[in-house]
Design a protein that fits this description.
Blueprint: E1 2-3, H1 10-20, H2 22-28, E2 30-34, H3 36-44, E3 49-54, E4 68-71, H4 74-80, E5 89-94, E6 108-113, H5 118-130, E7 136-139, H6 148-154, E8 163-165, H7 168-178, E9 182-185, E10 192-193, E11 202-207, H8 215-220, E12 223-226, H9 238-250
Parallel strand pairs: 1-4, 3-4, 6-7, 6-11, 7-8, 9-11, 9-12, 10-12
Antiparallel strand pairs: 2-5, 3-5
Helix pairs in contact: 5-6, 5-9
Length: 260
């Protein structure tokens, strides 16, 4: 175990860059997790864990052999953590390789189209995982999945549910090859009540917070769906809309209820 006290230590510089720069994360092949919960999930799902930085009162359990372990003061942890309220544990994990699959054999997937809020992207991934979705696609400048705020919002789903980044063209080709219809949360002439749609095997598309689905994604949709709501409400938050549609889709799965 190491003990680091200086802010100028190379590891401190590395952690700060991992927290702030998507390009640095891609270049180094690592990302930062901030919380004991995320470390617990990384261990449970056997994520490639490289380094753990912690404070003395963090209550850290045994770690796998080969993981770098670094003790820091609470003051240094406050400097290193990207969160306003650090929880005493930072974990550095390797970025997983997620090449775009040739086909999609699963029952249900989610597409996010230009969703730029890290909290929304993370929450939607967590929701997709909770309601048995088989994967998530990020299209058109979504928030970086490995932004610390996104990772924290996933509550560990980042280690369980596959996520792919692709262009609308690549998505169209993949959906065609897989025989999967795309249902977009939007309003147009063919829009159906979300409660009446057959979600047996499909892909659900959620648009950005301000603009909704882009024209590119709308052109790919086989159908659009509408969530019924009060007349004085124009729309739902992206994460809320995803939760409603994924819950509606999961209702017909016939799975045993469980705790998420």
């Amino acid at each position: 175990m190491e003990n680091i006290t200086s802010r100028t230590n190379p590891l401190c510089t590395h952690l700060r860059k991992l927290a702030s720069s998507a390009s640095y994360r891609r270049r180094t092949g690592e990302f930062l997790c901030d919380s004991p919960k995320l470390l617990e999930e990384a261990l449970a799902w056997e994520a490639p864990l490289h380094t753990v930085v912690f404070t003395e009162n963090a209550g850290l359990g045994p770690l796998p052999e080969g993981v770098r372990q670094v003790l820091v003061s609470p003051e240094l942890m406050a400097f290193l953590s990207p969160m306003e309220t650090p929880q005493g544990v930072l974990a550095v994990c390797g970025l997983p390789e997620q090449p775009l699959p040739e086909t999609l054999p699963g029952r249900r997937y989610v597409v996010l189209d230009g969703v730029q809020d890290p909290g929304n992207v993370g929450t939607i991934l967590r929701t997709a995982d909770a309601f048995h979705a088989d994967g998530l696609f990020l299209v058109n400048a979504c928030a970086d999945l490995y932004n610390p705020k996104t990772v924290r919002s996933t509550m560990g789903a980042v280690f369980r549910c596959p996520v792919w980044k692709c262009t609308p063209e690549a998505l169209r080709q993949l959906l065609t090859q897989s025989g999967l219809p795309l249902y977009g949360a939007a309003l147009r002439a063919d829009t159906a009540d979300a409660r009446t749609v057959d979600y047996t095997r499909c892909v659900i598309a959620i648009g950005s917070e301000g603009q909704g689905l882009s024209s590119e994604l709308l052109a790919l949709c086989d159908k659009t769906v509408l969530i019924p709501m009060s007349a004085h409400c124009e729309s739902l938050n992206a994460a809320a809309a995803a939760a409603v549609l994924l819950w509606e889709a999961a209702r017909g799965d016939g799975r045993e209820p469980g705790l998420c």
